[in-house]
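PROTEIN SPECIFICATION:
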Amino acid sequence: MLELAKIDRRRDLHGKEKSRTFAMDTLNGADQQAARENPVQARGHDSVAGTNVLRAISVLQDHAVIDHYKLQTESARAYHVSTLQIQLGRDTNFRSHSLSFGGALVRNDINAVLSEGCECTLNGLYLVGGEQHIDNHTSIDHAKPHAASHELYKGILEGHSTAVFNGKILVRTAPELHRKAVLSATAEGISLSQWISRQIELA
């Protein structure tokens, strides 16, 4: 079990508590591991605090299985910004489960780079109310061929709360294949994105 490390806590000029957390996990010694995050909560249900978390997970070992769990339950007046950077080795299976229940303003960023044969699953659940706002942004880069990715984010909102989900998936192709696709789209008089959508529908 790997947990967040190096917590820097301080207060600003107005007495508001702030914490910054940095962690770098390099996994290369076991076939299956779990990484857990539970951001440090400010004291008191109405405490005003700011949390900034940066975590990087680099999987050097091939055929590894990694489960990542994040539980965010800070006070309803807290501010939480986190970034998770993931670099996966060949044939690695990575699953992330993010649960967000607190914070006045919350932003969760996940950026994953996949190697050949990887499988990446990003799951998220959020529950917000009142004036709370939560952002979930994901980016999955299929840097090598034969990788699979899955995303499922669901939320429950009440009151005047708001939420944003923005998921990006980048699939790289060989230069020759890209050139052929552009020529085919041009010959049909449509944009490249329209041509790709048509090919997906016909598949």
Q: What stands out?
A: The chain has two domains: 2-172, 173-203.
